[in-house]
Amino acid sequence: MATEYWPNSRLRTKTGLGVWEHRGKVAVAGIGFAPTMRRWDGEDLSTSVGALTIVAAQKALDDAGISKGEIDGVVACPIGMGDNWGPESVTGRPYFAPPYDTEDGLIGTSADWLVKNMGLWNAKSTFHGAACFNTAMSVGAQVVGDGLANTILVIRGMGNPPGRYHQAPDTNYSGPRQWSAPFDWRLEPLIAYGFDQYCRKYGKTHDMVAPFVLNQRRNGLLMPEGYYAQHRPETPTKEDYLAARWVVKPMCIMDMDLPIQTAVAFVVTTGERARGMKQKPVYILTHCSQRGVVRSTTETLDETEAFAANIAGMCYEGSGLTARELDVFNPYDGYTLFTQYYLEAFGWHGVKRGEALDFYAGDIRVEGPHPFSSSGGNNGNGRTRSWGQYDCIQQLRGQAGRRQVRIKAETAIAGAFTPGTSDWTVYSTSPD
Amino acid sequence: MPKQSPIPDELDRPFWAACNEGRLVIQHCTRCDRLQHPPEPTCAQCGSADNLEWRQVSGRGRIYSYAVMYDTPVTVLQADQPFNIVVITLEEDPGIQMLSHLPGTTVDQVPWGASVQVEFETTPNGQKVPEWRVVG
Ligand SMILES: [Zn+2]
Q: Which residue among A73, A94, A223, B91 is the one 20 to 30 A from B1 at the CA level?
């Protein structure tokens, strides 16, 4: 039987639920990233996304100091980032011999694929969380907390096959897309127009985002696992940002993260078991998921800000933390034009509504007093939606290397994707 | 400008049929006296399917905000880049939005907050879609 998707009804999607029932009882014990590449070459199966997921998973096991026989469950976000590889009749690309005779392992990696091809003989429980690593982390935290498995791998493979992706040659649309497609309304215009609305409301301008983007890229070069550090060690300037081409004005190409191929894996286990493993445990205080519903055709700025406020409310309520107690903060930045909603909603370092872009002008370097998004995010490392989670663990262990923040690092939050639809994890060095 | 065609389905056929007659109709719950768009099988407020009707609206609205598309993945739109994508709110209920390329308005010269009037544009499969033009 194919692994089933974890239902939204079993996620924490609203405030009022109180402190998470498994607060501090679940921990991250191992983390691993595969090497990054801009795109898969379409030939070398040793760098397929499936193969890269095995690499990431082995790194996470080694990091935790455990063997694969100790893994009794796998939670995957089985969906890749790019377009599908096949079928041949559509893309002209034939599948390969097993285990590459379907999309699985070529564009994303399912829990079942990993269990089979990594030989995780003891992994009896498999679950899917879509469509993000952060969703898989929420599911994983709940799976271990509920005792459905004891020590699991949480994985996401991000396949990016050759060619520009998400091209749309369709001339007709039915269903929900018929309201938006004729006008080219997609996520990018939504974020761009929302930012335009934000600027009008608070009297801000697009160029004020530059310090944030440049700092993300700077932090990215301090992340050895990231795409830019590995392949393009560039240091863009403010002039580069201001001259960057518009994709959908006011969003420019440097506001968007670069699609890459790689894979990530975390070992998640009970706090008690984690204490017996190699690394200092990083405890999960809560997880939550935003599944916002808009009233009409698109999301208004008021709705966006309400969604972000709900996320912050769920994170703080479920963890029992306050904004003052939040040290490391890695909200999603895949479009840098929505990160301000998170910063303002969480009130990290006292930032209030309408103040985020001014905050970016201050000292947000990892060495400084306000090390915002210390991971470098997806803008600084390539599109995985998991660098924030990865950095939180490293920072709380004191293993972030040149990115290690100088401020106290005892609690952390990471999450992705949009204010309307995203999943978040709250971490602590202490289970209490 | 050329755009993709919607294909009406059971739920929204009255909306698209009205467009072809040059009328803008919006789903309305008579129990809640509330408009909703896009149409749904039930009222989002009271959950009932029994009180939904189609109400003709004035076709007047206001520009809420906009973006300018420079790099679309949609093939049929690429020749017209860059183009405006504008969010319109309806006069009867500003909580209801519709989208527009704002024909007649220069790219990136969108008058924020301006009044607009609906018109109907024929798409390749013959189905008309609502478009909006700045008035006054
Ligand atoms: Zn109703």
A: B91
